[in-house]
User: Which sequence fits this backbone?
């Protein structure tokens, strides 16, 4: 088994146990230590900018299923769908010198990266798709983030159980060359079930880190006062690892 397979297996085993035993203080400490080891091992052995495997077009899966929220289902979101997302804006805010409000046209005018990668879901399925969009690092550079910024929060248009979905990464993953704000899947605009009009691709992490329906990118110094302080919707509620490296 290769390094990616080993790390994916470790992540899956840890996450599988989180929802059952992660509430106890000793187990919480153990899981946090193992999560830290996962991050350390991936970045030590693979390097901070090592690329996830990229595939050929012949490898693309015949279908790419939706997962989690498949449609935010709000009147506001439906208005955007009806207008072909012409008025959708991606806000870039927080610890930045130059806040941005980017339209879909603005994002398409930026330098694009196309990559064919495998999506690994914590539920046990995988699919290969071709994604295209601007590199997140380019957007952050344009916004001129502060030197003391530590994390990037992805705010989303969908809510689960009345709570807005969000996710986050640190600056290593934010500036990874394969971390993109994707607006295309397999050469077509993103379908609603896959996060239209914008979703993140964090290619060296499990699928729940790839936030969909992204409305804002927020640069912060700490995760402590975001949600429950654990860095993501599922991390706050189900004991999922914040760092889900594969």
Assistant:
């Amino acid at each position: 088994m290769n390094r990616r397979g080993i790390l994916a297996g470790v992540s899956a085993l840890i996450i599988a146990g989180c929802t059952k035993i992660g509430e106890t203080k000793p187990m919480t400490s153990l899981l946090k230590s193992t999560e830290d080891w996962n991050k350390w091992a991936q970045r030590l052995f693979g390097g901070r900018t090592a690329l996830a495997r990229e595939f050929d077009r012949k490898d693309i899966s015949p279908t790419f299923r939706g997962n989690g929220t498949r449609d935010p289902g709000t009147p506001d979101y439906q208005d955007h769908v009806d207008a072909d997302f012409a008025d959708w804006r991606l806000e870039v805010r927080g610890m930045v010198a130059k806040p941005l409000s980017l339209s879909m046209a603005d994002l398409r005018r930026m330098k694009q990266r196309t990559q064919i990668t495998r999506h690994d879901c914590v539920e046990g399925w995988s699919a290969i798709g071709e994604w295209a969009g601007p590199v997140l690092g380019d957007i952050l550079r344009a916004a001129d983030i502060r030197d003391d910024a530590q994390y990037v929060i992805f705010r989303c248009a969908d809510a689960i159980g009345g709570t807005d979905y969000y996710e986050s990464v640190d600056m290593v993953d934010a500036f990874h060359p394969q971390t993109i704000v994707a607006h295309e899947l397999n050469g077509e605009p993103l379908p609603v079930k896959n996060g239209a009009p914008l979703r993140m691709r964090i290619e060296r992490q499990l699928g729940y880190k790839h936030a969909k329906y992204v409305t804002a990118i927020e640069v912060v110094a700490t995760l402590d006062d975001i949600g429950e302080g654990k860095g993501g919707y599922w991390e706050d509620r189900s004991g999922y690892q914040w760092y889900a490296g594969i």
DSSP finds seven helices and eleven strands in the chain. The chain has a mean pLDDT of 87.
